[in-house]
């Protein structure tokens, strides 16, 4: 019972966050999502390059 209430509360919270995101950003939300995705890809690429260099040294 407790788990289902927590799941319902999380669903409500995330739906409110999603509504606020699209309501306040509108079409700019796509640009924000794209920018965040690009930033994460660049950060992951840098992390993997450092890991690869570290493995080549050993």
TrEMBL record:
Q: Transmembrane residues, as ranges?
A: 31-48
Is Transmembrane a UniProt keyword of this protein?
Answer: yes
Per the record, the domain of life is: Bacteria
What keywords are assigned to this protein? Membrane, Transmembrane, Transmembrane helix
Query: Is Transmembrane helix one of the keywords UniProt gives this record?
Result: yes
> What's the name of the protein?
Membrane protein
What organism does the record attribute this protein to?
Collimonas pratensis
